Amino acid sequence: MNKIDFALGKTNYIICAVSVAIIILGFILMTGPATTIEGGFEPDIFSTRRIVIAPMTCFFGFLLMIVGILYPDKKSKEEAKN
Hints:
single chain; 82 residues; mainly alpha; 3 helices; elongated
């Protein structure tokens, strides 16, 4: 039976999956009613949730993705010692 070596370890993939979920949450926080011609002006487009919290959530998710990719795996640490 051949063992398949992946580029990243299990921990890296878990961190990346969590970061994708955080990024999706940030985009969901950005959604809301839009200003339309028929409906008129919608002041909710300037809410704190849509212009501060949601972009910060997405940014944190992207930073966590970088951490997930660069996080050292235990196996690579052991191989580096030998």
